[in-house]
Design goal:
29% helix, three-stranded mixed β-sheet, 2 helices, alpha+beta
Length: 69
């Protein structure tokens, strides 16, 4: 599995914040946002191709944005 940023979303959020500033909104009203929205990628088939035995129990599987098979 992998956990990483979705940079299109990061750019969109940054653009929204820049537009707010350019439109005259006080920066004190803009606030702080999480600029790294995380996306979980899961490849359950990869567990069969690694040296050590790994298992991903059903109760530990979070919902993924993309599952690779």
């Amino acid at each position: 599995f992998g956990l990483g940023a979705e940079y299109t979303g990061v750019g969109y959020l940054a653009g929204q914040m820049a537009a707010d500033v350019l439109e005259g909104k006080p920066t004190s009203e803009i606030g702080v946002r999480n600029m790294v929205p995380l996306h979980l990628l899961v490849n359950p088939d990869a567990l069969n191709n690694i040296r050590d035995k790994w298992a991903l129990p059903e109760q530990m599987q979070p919902p993924a944005q993309l599952t690779i098979h």
